[in-house]
Design goal:
Layout (H helix, E strand, L loop, with lengths): L2 E5 L6 E5 L10 H8 L3 E5 L17 H15 L4 E6 L1 H12 L4 E7 L7 H16 L2 H12 L2 H5 L2 H13 L4 H13 L13 E6 L7 H10 L3 E6 L6 H4 L1 H13 L2
Parallel strand pairs: 2-3, 2-4, 4-5, 5-6, 6-7
Antiparallel strand pairs: 1-3
């Protein structure tokens, strides 16, 4: 597994950031400046994407993705880490908390869930149909609709057009994407949440159209040491569209005594 290390080079605590379905560590660029002053920060591309591109095996699941995180920590020689995960990355964080609790200090889950809602499954079914029957370009053109608020999108047409070109150039491949969608839809940790011992911040956006904020609320309610933080707007990718409120809450949580 390839990864990047930013920020402190001393004995500061390490924060590992795990993206959602897109899988790219660059998703977290809006958080870097807020974190690197106090932490060593690890960015990585999920297996099958970006710098870790390559065909994924059949049955690739969230447990395998959590094992990849352990591999990165072992490579770094890091015994314990703060982990921040968005959506699919949040599921990886949950699984790490269950599989290797000694490796996790604090956990942050952004627009995540313990078991997929019917609404979220409907959204992914629609995206799957676009990919399979219309094509990659249509899938990528529709993707921002699920990620960002309409007003935010309307102000950034040129930027989004360029991002769509780049997304197609670095597309992870339909086969990999479909396996990753299957992995997140089949994941269910709802009956194991009481086993998560790490202090956890569960963050959600009220206007997320892909993952209802109530799914994050249920997730927080099932975790023994969870705090729930709800922002009014920002969409599914609120860490990108409106990063400042999240960054403040993130740093407060990670540095709290």
């Amino acid at each position: 597994m390839q990864y990047e290390v930013h920020g402190r080079k001393d004995a500061a605590a390490t924060v590992l950031l795990s993206a959602g379905l897109g899988g790219l560590g660059s998703f977290w660029l809006p958080q870097l400046a807020a974190l690197t002053e106090q932490f060593r920060v690890v960015l990585y591309d999920h297996r099958g994407t970006g710098q870790n591109a390559g065909p994924l095996p059949d049955g690739h699941d969230i447990a395998a993705m959590a094992d990849d995180v352990v591999q990165i920590l072992d490579s770094l020689g890091v015994a314990r880490v703060h982990m921040v995960g968005h959506a699919l990355g949040g599921l990886i964080g949950l699984e790490l908390a269950l599989r290797a609790p000694a490796r996790l200090d604090r956990l942050v889950l952004v627009n995540a869930w313990s078991r997929g809602e019917a609404h979220t499954a409907r959204c992914f079914a629609m995206r799957r149909q676009l990919l399979l029957h219309v094509g990659v370009e249509a899938y990528l053109q529709a993707q921002p609709i699920f990620l960002y608020p309409a007003a935010w999108l309307a102000q950034r047409s040129a930027q989004l057009a360029e991002e769509a070109v780049q997304a197609q150039r670095h597309f992870q491949g339909s086969a990999n994407l479909l396996k990753r969608i299957d992995a997140l839809l089949s994941y269910d940790a709802s009956d194991r949440l009481d086993q998560v011992i790490a202090p956890t911040l569960v963050a959600a956006s009220r206007d997320d159209i892909l993952v209802p904020w109530t799914a994050s609320q249920k997730l927080a309610a099932g975790l023994p040491q969870a705090r729930f933080w709800l922002t009014a707007e920002g969409g599914h990718a609120c860490t990108v569209s409106d990063p400042a409120p999240f960054n403040r809450r993130l740093v407060e949580f990670l540095t709290a005594g």
